[in-house]
Amino acid sequence: MDLGARLKGRHVLVTGASSGLGEHFARLCARHGARVSVGARRREKLDLLVAELREAGALEARAYALDVTDEASIKSCFNDLAAPLDTLVNNAGVALASSALDTPLADFDSVIATNLRGVWAMSTQAAARWRDEGREGAIVNIASILSARVSGGVAPYAVSKAAVKQATHALALEWARYGVRVNALAPGYIETEINAEFFASPPGQAMIKRIPMRRLGRPEDLDAAFLLLAGDAAPWMTGAFVPVDGGHLVSGL
Ligand SMILES: NC(=O)c1ccc[n+]([C@@H]2O[C@H](COP(=O)([O-])OP(=O)(O)OC[C@H]3O[C@@H](n4cnc5c(N)ncnc54)[C@H](OP(=O)(O)O)[C@@H]3O)[C@@H](O)[C@H]2O)c1
Predict the structure, then answer these.
(1) CA-to-CA distance for 239 and 177, rounded, in angstroms?
(2) What is the CATH number of domain 4-244?
């Protein structure tokens, strides 16, 4: 089956597309003939991406200033969307490296507000519209291997991503009746802006040695799983948590 072809003509909104994995997913969708909308706070970076996608022949590419922690911003993004949505990719996320005892509550709140509340708020907006319009839809939550296991110094992030996994299951159950599928893609460690500094450090280098496949992921390692969840190739697949991690989640204890 050609997974990429199953994305052709679909309208996909990718949050957090101003860098890293979100930017990669937006390019991937455009390359496979999807209509792409991208949202993030750094509008200028999105405008550059959209210009690049259009130049490369994207069917449609549009940028939206979006802060997933702000309900008004989310509503205005959905109201402004040029066409009905088919797929929402909840990719926006923040990581914060500090031990639990050194983490001010405000920092904990900001990680939860983006990574969990943001996913909830975006998903409920999308699903309510799909239900009211009688349209099917797909949600892809970008979770993490830290949804399922823990690592030191990133507790708020791990807590938020574990909750995203459970939200994926809970929302899949509630929305299956409306034809809305909700799945989670759980990347292992992939080098982007969010973690480049860490992987250059001695603890980061040690962690790479603990990945059974002995290397960091590359964004394109996620492509096949992403296309499966974002398109319509797997219409009976919902509530799934799909790790793509070089075997990190099955590393020996
Ligand atoms: N890289 C990895 O190894 C890895 C592994 C597992 C999971 N993930 C997950 O993958 C996703 C992307 O991460 P990344 O590695 O690509 O990091 P990144 O390069 O730092 O990208 C994060 C994106 O989230 C956006 N964002 C942050 N707060 C936002 C807000 N309030 N509203 C809207 N957008 C917001 C940022 O855009 P603005 O600043 O412009 O708003 C940025 O585009 C995250 O959910 C992350 O947890 C990454």
Answers:
(1) 13
(2) 3.40.50.720
pLDDT at 90: 99
Which pLDDT does position 197 carry in this prediction?
86
- Among 50, 194, 242, 248, the mutation site with the greatest number of ligand 1 atoms within 8 A of its Cβ is 194
Check 64, 157, 178, 189 and give the catalytic one. 157
User: What pLDDT, on a 0 to 100 scale, did the predictor assign at position 3?
Assistant: 96
Nearest atom of ligand 1 to the alpha carbon of 193:
19
- For the chain, residues with pLDDT lower than 50 are none
- Per-residue confidence (pLDDT) for residue 196, from 0 to 100: 83
Residue 191: what pLDDT?
86
Residue 187 CA, closest ligand 1 atom number: 6
Q: Are strands 180-187 and 241-244 parallel, antiparallel or unpaired?
A: parallel
User: Tell me, what's the pLDDT at 192?
Assistant: 79
At 229 the pLDDT is: 98
